[in-house]
């Protein structure tokens, strides 16, 4: 939380200069009238027209926070929530965390004075667990709703319900053109029905904002390429040598491609004459700490061109000053859940037109720009209009758990914007049931199910953590550290000089035969013992900021548990090395099995793994202890598909008996399939 200073600062009209040049400025009065009159306003506008930064300012100025209520603006991604909050705070001349703040998972930069709060959509959903009617807000703006992120879809459904109960709440949905009518239809009452005296016609309205800040010229390749990373490097070099100066933003699909691109680029730069304008390459992907992500917003040093190489996380709502050129590979890594196999895979697929437009729109925000699409124009014409809704391709267990906790027991007939396939819901219910979160009545079990819903962790990890406190496992202290490290999503280690060998060597120093979770635990412990030292992290190829983040996450998780009245035994569990004759390391692995039994695999003679049902071959990620070592059975906490191979990360060796013990029903019901 930020400090509570600045309590009585009035709205500062002299600082309030709604960037008069932004297209949205002309629609200010119309927008405010619509928001005042209609419960729901759908705003459609070009990228950079001012929706995200200006609408909250207009509403603030119009008195929507006068009675102590707040305005919330949701974003699908952390980087958008944090950077836009910083921008709006700057525009209003207030320190970030005061009148304008942000809140993302494990990071709350708001105070009692906060009036405009940028949040990730998932976080606002979580807030509903404690404040189901979101009473503290007068306006909720769901930004980038056309992206159809899982959380924003669910949020829209819940907001529709809240609006039926609160006639003082206003919902603003910002969307790309194509989806606007659909959103309006979703919210408005049926023909002949009235809500708070309002009929279909006077319940909601679409406002279109014409025009954009600066022009963006789009260029295409004449022929398709079969190596867009290489083409991206070519494009960067050609901009660097032939175009007028300006920073470059490149969209690739994932971290590996980003690393490859940076490696290739540094080889090419090495060949250049030293008096040439320098290139500064900066990676950007979700696994970086917030601080590292914010690095991309810093101005490049003199005579230096900044080249940001990013996944789609910089695609929407983000303004990076000085970006003149955007290079778009035309692909995105999309998470898809296969309900039959029960695994999540990451597939690289062509972007949608909406995404391509958003990417191009990262240029032309503070000056005219150019966008180079690494595919022919004919390919653009064939792209899907919008991204396939996440709710129809996701593991729904976390969301179903939250809906159940909100008292929505009939999750099949819930009012979804796009109903998910029933197989996904069934699978989610099945998993929650086997995790012990769901009672036969269809309600959450108490306390396990409700506690799992409250913990900001996915259900399997939540259950693992809750089990860790039970006498049989007695490893809460250790599991708290492991859970905190897992939230770093494989980004504890970093190569300070770019070398993969150095990274492997660093990992090996902490590795233990039992697997990656205990290895992560060792890393955490050693970091804390080092006094959280920066130098120590450097020496061991660890990302200091991420490690500090893990310490903070661990504290927050411990706080949740103490609120539940769950605590480690007074003797630190590390001191109780053997409980009931079971050594600590084994208890930890048994405990992991209690949560991750659905993520079990058996090693084959060639070192790959097969899922319990024998249907899928999995490979240990190179960062795993089991990339080299042998184990018969393992549980894994992360699964991803890269270049046609399914990799599992964070593995621990377990015994088959533990799996059956942990989930007898799960393994029996699926018999024939699973054992
Ligand atoms: N951090 C910043 N630095 C400089 N200018 C900025 C910054 N943030 C916003 N702007 C200016 O404000 C304009 C509007 O930004 P805003 O994010 O409100 O647009 P938007 O309509 O929400 O766009 P999008 O849908 O692409 O996110 C930008 O085009 C840019 O000119």
UniProtKB/TrEMBL annotation:
Keyword ATP-binding: yes
Positions of the Helicase C-terminal domain: 232-407
This protein's name: RNA helicase
Database matches in SUPFAM superfamilies: P-loop containing nucleoside triphosphate hydrolases (SSF52540)
Ranges of residues in domain Helicase ATP-binding: 32-196
Keyword Magnesium set for record: no
Cellular-component GO terms for this entry: catalytic step 2 spliceosome
Reactions mediated catalytically: ATP + H2O = ADP + phosphate + H(+)
Keywords: ATP-binding, Helicase, Hydrolase, Nucleotide-binding
InterPro entries cross-referenced by the UniProt entry: DEAD-box_helicase_OB_fold (IPR011709), DEAD/DEAH_box_helicase_dom (IPR011545), DNA/RNA_helicase_DEAH_CS (IPR002464), HA2_WH (IPR048333), Helicase-assoc_dom (IPR007502), Helicase_ATP-bd (IPR014001), Helicase_C-like (IPR001650), P-loop_NTPase (IPR027417)
A single GO molecular function term of this UniProt record: RNA helicase activity
EC number from the UniProt entry: 3.6.4.13
Gene3D superfamilies per the UniProt record, alphabetical: 1.20.120.1080, P-loop containing nucleotide triphosphate hydrolases
Homology family: Belongs to the DEAD box helicase family. DEAH subfamily.
